[in-house]
Design brief:
It contains 11 helices and 10 strands. It has 320 residues and is α/β, with parallel strands linked by helices. The strands form 2 sheets. A 6-stranded mixed sheet has the order 3-2-1-4-6-5, with helices on both faces. A hairpin with a 2-residue loop joins strand 9 and strand 10.
């Protein structure tokens, strides 16, 4: 199996690189590395590659790219780099550009996994960001250890450190004398994640030092519930997927939680992930489905949801 490791040069990705390159991940993360058929972790028989995306948003960007290139030489791994073609105006733009680059490189080398260094504190921040953006209950699930990168690709995102604390990662770097770089924008409060990290979350931790652990427990429960409703939604959609439409009388009779999951499942199958769809978008689709008049439509990204009549039955169809 080929694994592409996304390395920014920061402590998290440098530690992930060292763990994978030296076969220490299993012991460090207290997890097993089973056979290749696993949906979470790859076989121990893997080939590693390094990818670095230069966002070109600070003065040290070129130096950081050079640092990661030297790391690749140190570990004797093939190195790939990419650079933003335009000025990135938001965190979402930066993330999308980075993922597009990683998917392109993974496809080029035939990698099945893209390893990312997200850790437990990143997960807590992501959950808060999801709620702020209006993702609703689904956002409580946060990131997954294993997730598809897009609908058109069989490449998977893999986050093996997602349950590991930042302090444990930093301790590993110190004990193993690993060198890393620090992004100067990490403290810039104009980025919402930074504002949460340095201004908001510490206030919650003063109220409850184990606040982060509590959020992660809630996130785990939310993911388990989401996985169950997702299975139900996928099974319900099976009869309608070929025609890219569902019969509205039957759809509208479903429990609200299941209807929401059906909409998210449709979106996820077309796009490959749930980035870009918020709870307010789901509610707009449900309102569209309840509208007794046909011919109305809603567009979200590349997908158009539209109500119509087919053989005397109202339907909700989607195209994109």
């Amino acid at each position: 199996m080929k694994i592409l490791i996304a390395v920014s040069g920061g402590v998290d990705s440098v530690v992930l690189l060292d763990l994978l390159a030296n076969g220490k991940l299993e012991k460090f993360a207290n997890c097993q590395l089973p056979v290749v058929s696993s949906v979470e972790l790859p076989t121990t028989n893997y080939q590693l590659f390094i990818a670095h995306f230069n966002h070109a948003i600070h003065s040290k960007a070129e130096a950081h790219e050079k640092f990661v290139k030297n790391l690749a030489r140190k570990y004797s791994l093939e190195f790939f780099s990419g650079k933003a073609k335009k000025k990135l105006k938001s965190e979402a733009e930066a993330r999308n550009a980075r993922y597009e680059f990683l998917e392109k490189i993974a496809g080029k080398i035939g990698a099945e996994r893209i390893a990312l260094a997200h850790h437990a504190e990143d997960q807590v921040e992501t959950i808060f960001l999801n709620l702020i953006r209006g993702s609703g209950l689904a956002g409580l699930g946060g990131m997954r250890k294993f997730a598809g990168i897009s609908a058109r690709s069989k490449i998977s995102l893999w986050r093996p450190l997602l349950e590991i604390s930042k302090s444990k990662i930093e301790d590993y770097a110190q004990k193993n004398q690993l060198k890393f770089v620090t992004d100067p924008t990490n403290r810039d409060p104009k980025f919402l994640r930074n504002f949460l990290r340095w201004e908001i979350l510490p206030k919650f931790e003063k109220l409850n030092p184990k606040f982060g652990e509590a959020i992660l427990r809630i996130s785990k429960l939310a993911r388990e519930n989401a996985e169950f409703t997702n299975l139900l939604a996928a099974e319900w959609l099976r009869r309608f997927e070929k025609n890219k439409s569902v019969e509205l009388p039957e759809f509208n009779s479903l429990p609200s939680a299941l209807k929401r999951e059906v909409v998210r499942e449709i979106y996820s199958r077309k796009i490959g992930n749930l980035r870009g769809i918020e709870e307010k978008h789901v509610e707009e689709i449900l309102a569209l489905a309840r509208n007794p008049r046909g011919g109305k439509e809603k567009k979200f990204g590349k997908i158009i949801f539209k109500t119509a009549r087919k053989r005397g039955v109202r339907i909700l169809e989607w195209r994109g």
